[in-house]
Q: What sequence folds into this?
């Protein structure tokens, strides 16, 4: 099975939790895309009725529109029944790294407002500890004096070694990536285990200039993992 087939299996499994009349947070990324497609398909077949979708990015908004999924936002629906989204990393306590698609702020807002947050991943996303797989932990920051903020972020983690890199767009000859909210993303790369994730999260969020980061701690209620040997469902 290819990685995308595994993503699709996890996504379809998650959509089994969707019931008619629910308000659903619609995630962003290649795994969540399959879930949004599936919801659109079930609506078309009449197997799901009167769903309201709350998209977590402009990209998902466009996809859901094209599928005819009725959409709204957190202003109209401050409580969301169920959100389905992918992740870049999942640790044994179901803490996540998200945001490699650059949509972490709206994802965290929607997923923080939901009663149930179902994460869908293929088995390659499982890690022993966050930030350990050599991948970045994204931090959304305001564009104003971004170098100052990036330096401040690195300084926070001097003791464990941290490199901060501004995320750029190769397709726009290296211009800074700009999020749906008009902000920049700094990717943090850690040499060693971050240790106390909550303390790291609080320290990052206290820095003026920081908007939000990609560690989703104690937020997932269920993680659906699709692997070569089948699907595993982990509940909080
Ligand atoms: O950007 C995001 O947060 C995505 O959900 C990401 O975490 C997972 O993307 P993928 O499903 O394309 O791997």
A:
């Amino acid at each position: 099975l290819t990685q995308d087939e595994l993503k699709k299996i996890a996504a379809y499994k998650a959509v089994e939790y969707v019931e008619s009349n629910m308000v659903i947070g619609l995630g962003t990324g290649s795994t969540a895309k399959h879930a949004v497609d599936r919801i659109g398909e079930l609506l078309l077949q009449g197997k799901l009725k009167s769903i309201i979708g709350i998209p977590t990015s402009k990209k998902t908004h466009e996809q859901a529109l094209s599928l005819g999924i009725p959409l709204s936002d957190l202003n109209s629906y401050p409580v969301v029944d169920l959100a389905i989204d992918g992740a870049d990393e999942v640790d044994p306590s179901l803490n996540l790294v998200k945001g490699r698609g650059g949509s972490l702020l709206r994802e965290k807002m929607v997923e923080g407002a939901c009663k149930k947050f179902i994460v869908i991943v293929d088995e390659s996303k499982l890690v022993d500890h966050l930030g350990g797989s050599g991948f970045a932990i994204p931090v959304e920051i305001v564009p104003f004096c971004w170098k100052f903020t990036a330096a401040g972020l690195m300084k926070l983690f001097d003791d464990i070694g941290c490199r901060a890199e501004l995320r750029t767009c190769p397709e726009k000859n290296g211009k800074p990536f700009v999020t749906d909210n008009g902000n920049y993303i700094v990717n943090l790369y850690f040499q060693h285990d971050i240790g106390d994730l909550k303390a790291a999260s609080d320290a990052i969020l206290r820095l003026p200039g920081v908007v939000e980061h990609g560690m989703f701690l104690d937020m997932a209620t269920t993680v659906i993992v699709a692997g070569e040997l089948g699907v595993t469902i982990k509940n909080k």
